[in-house]
């Protein structure tokens, strides 16, 4: 077994461990489709409880999907990271029943203990871009698999 | 009755109308405490279903509260506005059972049909800052009270 | 001549017209290397007057390069656009004498009159990422080639 | 002499030391008007070399002023900090000859070694808001007064 396989296995083990504790992701119906070092792909379907006062998907629901992809991508090496700063641009409205896919990728190791990740949220059907998310994370002490990170 | 009272009444009517349709805010247990022109104050308590894989409140839950305060503040004049871009900085973790208050205020009418709003999310108990959110909105056609905005 | 050639010619004409008026870009030694619809590639070399109190390139100089690439990319169709909101993440320090290249690309037509662009700033020598910039623009009245945009 | 006075003196000493090395701020004609712990107030006048292709102040010039206020505010305790991520919303165009004032304030100590600062850029004449800037900084090793920070 080579290092890439080991790193992929570790990323998947981190995703499984995080998801088991991640009641928010579970409650939203978010599924982890793929996890690799610095990368995660997740999906979520827009349900009735995610609709806002303009009758489209609440920005908070789309953010939650993107932020979860960010979390799984930046915690994929069994080093605990927390989100410092996130930005999201909404490019197209999502509607009831649509399945969204979030693809998160590391762009930079950043400065010191920090990193930068880009997450694109696409409508599954036609791959239209729904949102662009960028997150900056900060590595805290602790690991994903065995211990809790410091707050 | 003076103009300020009328503007406040309109802001409250917009908040009531939006909330009635806002299944996402209802589902999260978000309450609108106050709505005035360009201003909204909301609260939400962190429940089990908002906890993430690090055993703290999911960034998506905090964002959803802030984004909802943004929506109610920028739709308070019965002109439909949608969020274009939002940024959030997480400054302190929130935990199970904590009540959070989001205070949203207009900072600028912006350029043309756009506006800028700042939302602070505070822990109710000790007023510690949990997150700073800034949103840019875009005025679409339509009103809050009678018609649906264009997507 | 096909439409792509015409669109590329228009983008280049817009870049030439903007650069002739753009004393800021000229003063910083910024060069436009390439302009196409929704795309621009520029470079700039870090000079003594761009160094800050930490003896590295001032964030403002790097932002200026990225923001200029954003401006040329989003004004490449002869419709005047202004920047609404920009975010930049600094991923590696740039130093005196280094040549930086900024590559700007449209990611979305956005909502209504708005658009989203991503600009990557790289060190020319080794292609190391120096900064990631994302901008939201707003189309005002007016064209690039013949009239001034409304403020 | 009490602690507040000592902290203010330290902030001013840091500002003086940084400014002496800050050729970018000097070149732009930026002046430090006030420096206190977690706070800085600077000004700059829009000159010919800061004008862009739309005949208004280049976003990069306004960003540079705001980013400099951020730097002086977050380095005011003689602990070296570098900018990780900055966002700026442009709310009103600035024109040739206008004097701008940037007021930077700490909003949070942030998570671990990080902090969040808000900088408002105002036109001096009428106090109209020109831009809102928010920055996240990261504390590196080293001090402002005696050593160089790690890159």
Commentary on this structure:
4 copies of one chain form a homotetramer. With 151 residues, chain A is of the alpha+beta class. Chain A has a single domain, classed as Thiol Ester Dehydrase, Chain A. Chain A is built from 3 helices and 6 strands, in the order H-H-E-E-H-E-E-E-E. The first copy, chain A, has helices spanning 3-21, 23-27, 59-74, and strands spanning 31-36, 39-45, 81-90, 99-108, 114-123, 129-139. A 6-stranded antiparallel beta sheet of chain A has the order 1-2-4-5-6-3. In chain A, a hairpin with a 5-residue loop joins strand 4 (99-108) and strand 5. The longest helix of chain A has 19 residues, at 3-21. The termini of chain A are far apart. At the A-B interface, helix 1, helix 2, helix 3 and strand 3 of A face helix 1, helix 2, helix 3 and strand 3 of B.
Q: Count every helix of chain A, treating DSSP H or I runs of 4 or more residues as helices.
A: 3
Assembly state (oligomeric):
homotetramer
Task: Let me know the average pLDDT of chain A.
Answer: 93
Return the CATH architecture of chain A.
Answer: Roll
Structure class of chain A: alpha+beta
The H-level CATH homologous superfamily of chain A, spelled out, is: Hotdog Thioesterase
Number of domains of chain A: 1
Q: How many DSSP E strands of chain A?
A: 6
Helix residue percentage of chain A:
25-40%
The first-level CATH class of chain A is given as Alpha Beta
Head-to-tail CA distance between termini of chain A = 35 Å
C-alpha Rg of chain A (nearest Å):
15 Å
Globular, elongated, flat, extended or rod-shaped: what is the shape of chain A?
A: globular
The amount of beta strand of chain A, in percent, is: 35-45%
Largest interface: A-B, 46 and 46 residues
What can be said about the biggest beta sheet of chain A?
A: 6 strands, antiparallel
Order of strands, main sheet of chain A, comes to 1-2-4-5-6-3
Written as H for each helix and E for each strand, in order along the chain, the element string of chain A is HHEEHEEEE
Low-confidence stretches of chain A: none
CATH fold category name of chain A: Thiol Ester Dehydrase, Chain A
């Amino acid at each position: 077994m080579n290092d890439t396989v080991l790193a992929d296995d570790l990323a998947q083990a981190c995703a499984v461990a995080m998801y088991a504790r991640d009641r928010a992701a579970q409650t939203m119906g978010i599924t982890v489709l793929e996890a690799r070092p610095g990368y995660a792909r997740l999906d979520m379907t827009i349900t009735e409880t995610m609709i806002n006062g303009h009758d489209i998907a609440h920005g908070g629901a789309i953010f939650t999907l993107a932020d979860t992809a960010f979390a799984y991508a930046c915690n994929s090496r069994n080093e605990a990271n927390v989100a410092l700063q996130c930005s999201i641009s909404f490019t197209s409205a999502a509607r009831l029943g649509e399945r969204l896919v979030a693809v998160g990728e590391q762009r930079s190791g950043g400065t010191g203990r920090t990193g930068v990740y880009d997450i694109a949220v696409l409508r599954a059907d036609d791959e239209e871009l729904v949102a662009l998310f960028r997150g900056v994370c900060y590595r805290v002490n602790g690991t994903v698999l065995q211990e809790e990170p410091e707050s």
